[in-house]
Amino acid sequence: MLAVILTNGLLITSCRYDDDDVEQTPVDEVEAQLQKMTLREKVGQLFYVRPEVLDTTIHYGHTGGIDVTTADLANIKLQAVNATMRAVNEKYPVGGIILYAHNIGDEAQLATFIPQIRALKGMPLLCVDEEGGRVARIGNNPNFDVEKFESMDAIGQTGDPANAYYCGRTIGSYLKRYGFDIDFAPVADVNTNPENIVIGKRAFSDDPAVAAPMVTNYLQGLKDAGITGCIKHFPGHGDTTTDTHYGYAQSLKTWDEMMNCEMITFKAGIDWGCQMIMTAHIGTPNVTGTEIPATMSSLILQDKLRGVMGYKNIIITDAMEMGAITQQYTSAEAAVGCILAGADIVLGPQNFIEAFEAVVKAVETGKISKKRLDQSVRRILRLKKEKR
User: Fold this and answer.
1) How far apart are CA 81 and CA 328, in angstroms?
2) Which residue of the set 55, 67, 318, 344 is catalytic?
3) pLDDT tens-digit series, residues 325-347
4) 282 near 251, Cβ under 8 Å?
5) What is the pLDDT, as a whole number, of residue 197?
6) Active-site residue 62, yes or no?
7) 311 near 353, Cβ under 8 Å?
């Protein structure tokens, strides 16, 4: 059929063709998905949580926190998705689920649990802390026959980055086999403070020149096994003396001092192409001029990590249920604050429902712009597209 259109006094004729005859403009799959999502679906992508938070019948420790003591978790051991969790998830979609040691029983249990998690609303990715050494949820479980590693420090002492690759490839291979997507490893901190009680032998070395190639080779090992790695804890937890699980910790280094130490390993990871960096809840008063945790600091996350370091991929917080956060902020304040500071993913808020609703409200009132929300969701969806 011939169509005649008069525009600005010009007679334009055009023919209507069948779709097969017209060159189609490709639509970016992620952008198309983003446009279809509701506000709550978008906000849900920003939360990676313990499975327990979806079961509102469970009550944790006297402080209201989830990670108060091991004893508080001794009788929980949630290892399957139940009806309550599915009902809560309908209103509160999640972008990811992190499994801890008490969520993991044996191979048969994981084979049932992980498909149940994947069926939840939000297309959650499966995450775990499996560094090797003392932080290994599967490696330290006697029900799993996997190769164990003494520590990253022991690997660093060999001086051969091929050993870090072997470690990453080995751990990545069994994580992939069991159904995980993301390993919150390796530790990129430089263990420069002998009084450090939280990093220690989890780090490859007290020398960034040794640690940097170990970090990138470990990442490559994970990647070759089909697992996304995450370097941590930016801007460096290795020079602290206290543990952010329980309260305030700080590094007194200046930015120049960090550039000559911690940033060497993080920059190596960034240049390699790491997809995810985890923040530390440490104060850096000689960088920011305040005691604000790095997780909540736009100067650290935006100016330094994205600006100076040139990082463009996902920023995920350390667990927001940790004392360094909960002793200073409510779950609502912490969730909104870290997103405003530049984080893309809020990991493990103490009160998930409160944090979720606070972010929804912040977007509705304009405190968090829709553009800012979409920036984070876009990064997360792109990673999910790669994982499919």
Assistant:
1) 32
2) 318
3) 999 999 999 999 999 999 999 99
4) yes
5) 60
6) no
7) no
